[in-house]
Structure formats: structure tokens, C-alpha cells
Amino acid sequence: MANLEVNFCGVKFPNPLVLASGILGVTGGSFARTIAKGAGGITTKSIWKNPHPGHHNPTMFGNEHYFMNAVGLSDAGIQKALEELGEYIPKRKAPLIVNIVGGKKSDFADIAEALNDLPGKPDLLEVNISCPNVEDEFGKPFACSIIDAAEVTRLVKSKTKIPITVKLSPNVENISSIAKSVEDAGADAITAINTVGPGMRWNIDLRTPILANKVGGLSGPAIFPISVKCVYDIYKAVKIPIIATGGVCSGRDALEIMMAGGTLVGVGTAIYYDGDDFWNKATSEMSEWLKKEKIKNISEIIGLFHKK
Ligand SMILES: Cc1cc2nc3c(=O)[nH]c(=O)nc-3n(C[C@H](O)[C@H](O)[C@H](O)COP(=O)(O)O)c2cc1C
Q: How many angstroms separate the first and last alpha carbons of the chain?
């Protein structure tokens, strides 16, 4: 049996597959069920400082190639999250990554500080800098600027001792330079990627957009080549580990994106296709491949494509 355990920023994960942000909310019961079904860890949806309404329905559209969502990061705010997570954290059976988001830089700092008060802290904070930034004249995400991305990273680091992973957007000119700037600002890790686009679809009979918000971020199998390329480029640019995310739909996909540079692998949209069965199916496929290749520890394959 191959050993699937990986160490990420000093935290032990029983296997590299973690639930990506936004797929389940902040409810402990659904997290526990996902771990029991074989996930190696959980990421919460993005938590805001104050309640955040998100967008109107319909917010999701999917087919066998991709999902397009405009959920708009709806959330009840940090106070509600503290209640839910405060109950779950002491009982958790695998690591918990708490994803935080803000329209202002100071919001990130405030949420990170509030999470310090939780009994038994989260294992990692994931800092989602990929949403529109109200401090910017054009509402560009912090993830689009090396200066803003670094400033948010520095602020969060100054408020917490929990390791932080900064979640990057693929919708930038050069994701490696953003990765390097957050590493220099003190990030412990990088999560790549968030959704691609945005994209847009219409109903030709009704002449109406499919999503009420008209546009939505793309996820799922169609974006996998983009996430592999982003992870490959980031691995070359930085020394900190990566949560490789985007379009992973099988154990073989997970192995591929680990060889491109991922230490952990985030899985989101695949759960809409396969449900909870995904986790055991994918880890079995990974184990069997490693056994066939006579590789004892999965951590040996991280970044393997760079050693050619
Ligand atoms: C319905 C939905 C909601 C999402 N919500 C969040 C969120 O709250 N915060 C975040 O950082 N990413 C969010 N994401 C992005 C995912 O975490 C992930 O980065 C992206 O979907 C690519 O991975 P996938 O193809 O495996 O889904 C969401 C994705 C989907 C499909």
C-alpha cells in the first residue's frame, strides 16, 4: 500500500485531496461526512466580516465540460461562522482550512484576528484575494496586483500565527509574479487556481442570460489544462507549497497536477458530478498507480515534471 499522507506547512493530511472552497458551506455535519467518505481535508466557503448577500438565482449552470457559477460568495459573516466552526474544530478528524475574503484590505485582517479566538484554531487560513476589491477605482481583485496581493498577505500575517495560503486568480497576465510577491510578503503557501473567466451563456429562445448575474466563473474539467499550467509556472517561481486546484476530476488528474507542482489538491466541481463517492474512488486510483510504479510515498511525485 502506498503512503498517501502529505505534510503541508507542518500540518499532516491523511491524503492530498481536499474539498475546495465554496462547495459546502461552514456546516460541521457536512464536513464530517466528507472526511468519513475519504477526503484528506476540508476548505470552508469564503467567510466575510459582515453578512454578504451574494447574487440572485439562478447562480449555477453546468454541463459535462464545465460549471459556471455566480454564487457571489454569499455568507452570513464571521460571527455566525465562529459559532459553527467553534463546534466543529475540536471534533475534526482531518485538517480544516478556513477561507476568508474581504472587499477592503482591513477586513481580511479583522477576520484573521477574530479566528484567533476560536477554541482549537483552524489548521490553515486560505486568503481569497480573487474577488472584486472595493478600494480599487475599477473594482479589480487584489489578486491582479503584486502590490495589493502582497499588502493583504502582510496584513493577515501580522494578525495570526496560523499558516496562510493565498488563493490566486488565473485571470491575470502573469500568475508567477503574483505568487512571488505573496511569497516575499510572508505567505506560507499558495492556492491556485480560483475560477476562470468570467464566462457568459444565453438562452436563444427566451433571449435571456442563463445566470441572473449574466456572467460567472468557470470551473470543472474544461479548466484543468489551465490549472496544470498555472501550478507548473508557480512551482518554478516559488519555494512555498501549493494547493493545486481547478478541474481535477479523477485520481489520475490529481497525480498529474501534483507532478506539475501541487502538494495538496483541491477538488470542487467534481463533487457535483460524482458526489461523495469521488473521494474513495480517486484515492484508490492514486494508490493503485503508485503501487504499479513502485512509489512508496506520494510526496515523492510532487514537482516530478520539473526534474526531467
Ligand atoms: C459553486 C462554487 C462556489 C465557489 N465558492 C468559492 C468561495 O466561496 N471561495 C473561493 O475561494 N472559491 C470558491 N469557488 C472556487 C473553487 O474553490 C475552485 O477554486 C474552482 O471552482 C476551481 O476548482 P474546481 O474546478 O475543482 O471546482 C467556488 C466554486 C464553485 C463551483
A: 26
